[in-house]
Specification:
Elements: H1 4-15, H2 22-29, H3 36-52, E1 57-63, E2 65-66, E3 89-90, H4 93-105, E4 110-114, H5 121-134, E5 140-144, H6 150-159, E6 161-165, H7 180-191, E7 196-204, H8 210-222, E8 227-232, H9 249-263, E9 269-273, H10 277-280, E10 286-292, H11 310-318
Parallel strand pairs: 1-4, 1-10, 4-5, 5-6, 6-7, 7-8, 8-9
Antiparallel strand pairs: 2-3
Helix pairs in contact: 1-3, 2-8, 3-9, 4-5, 5-6
């Protein structure tokens, strides 16, 4: 456990704009949530959040296709080998437009189109063009899909996407069926394109070490993520990791606070998922509202995941940040 003086020194350095190292991040993450050191970290993260982004923001996500996936990521309900999802379903473009329009009218800051790993690239572009044509004052569009080339990154931008959500997952290639080199190549393609990068450290579970988590926080900063933060793994019964317990909320909030300090002034926004009041008190300013195909559920979600509506998300954020009026 790092000593109190070193924690204070590293936190002070972060507040002055100094970039924290991976070793610094490990030290901060190693603090137990119910300690004076952790309280210092959370207070500093909140200070950075209020200096850097006083605005609460909503990340809306629409899962377009719900189908068995041959990649068999060990935390994902879509894995074909787990036989949780056995039938394929896909939202029509009109269904996507309807959900996106509701999110836009509710004041979403981003609308994310989320697909399975191998969803057709041209259809992804068609969805963006339709949303921009049909929704007045369409929020910033985000694509969350599989791997793509630099040329395809430019095509996504031309279609209307402005952000790519792409991450190097914890234990990529071990707990996922995706080539780690391919993930890194796509991250590099995003960096070389006009797309902004959103990169959460995920899916964090009780099985992950502070060194693993710190590595991904630094990676997100190195690739220039403008939105980062932490997504906890949601145990899905029937998946290989489904019997492991979730990360306690206090621990999630502490990791979020560290992610805010590690990101410094590179990332404007810090997201926590699942939503957490404690994390909003510790530097997060973004929560997620999602619908459709959700890889943290055994069934498709026809309304909002876990019942969190965009109105409820606004109320949650407004307890900690200012909010742009909806509509």
């Amino acid at each position: 456990m790092p000593d109190l003086k070193r924690i204070k020194d590293r936190v002070a350095a972060a507040l002055e704009g100094e970039q924290l190292t991976a070793e610094d991040a490990v030290d901060l993450l190693a603090c137990e949530p119910a300690t004076p050191e952790a309280e210092i970290i959370r207070h500093a993260a909140r200070e950075v959040a209020l200096k850097h982004s006083r605005q609460g923001r909503i990340w809306a996500a629409i899962g377009v296709d719900y189908r068995p996936c041959p990649r068999n990521c060990r935390f994902c309900s879509f894995g074909a080998a787990w036989r949780i999802v056995t039938q394929s379903e896909e939202w029509s473009i009109q269904q996507v437009i309807s959900a996106a329009d509701k999110f836009a009218r509710g004041g979403a800051d981003w609308i994310t189109i989320r697909t399975t790993q191998d969803y057709p690239h041209e259809h992804i572009c068609t969805i963006a063009r339709a949303l921009r044509a049909e929704i007045a004052d369409c929020p910033k569009l985000v694509i969350n899909t599989g791997e793509f080339t630099l040329g395809q990154a430019h095509e996504l931008y031309a279609a209307g996407y402005r952000v790519a959500y792409h991450v190097y997952r914890l234990r990529e290639g071990r707990d996922t069926g995706i080539d780690p080199a391919a993930r890194l190549a796509t991250l590099e393609n995003i960096r070389r394109s006009p797309l902004e990068l959103a990169f959460l450290v995920e899916p964090v579970g009780v099985e992950h070490t502070v060194e693993e988590i710190a590595t991904e926080m630094i990676r997100a900063r190195r690739f220039g993520a403008t939105l980062t933060g932490v997504m906890a793994r949601v145990p899905v019964p029937g998946t290989p990791l489904g019997d492991l317990p979730p990360v306690p909320e206090e621990r999630l909030a502490h990791m979020v606070a560290v992610s805010r300090l590690v990101a410094g002034y590179t990332a404007t926004d810090i997201c926590v998922h699942p939503p957490s009041e404690l994390a909003l008190q510790a530097g997060a300013n973004v929560v997620v509202v999602e619908t459709g195909a959700v890889p943290r559920e055994r069934d498709a979600v026809p309304r909002e995941w876990r019942g969190l509506t965009i109105e409820q998300a606004r109320e949650m954020l407004a307890r900690h940040y200012s909010m742009v009026p909806a509509g």
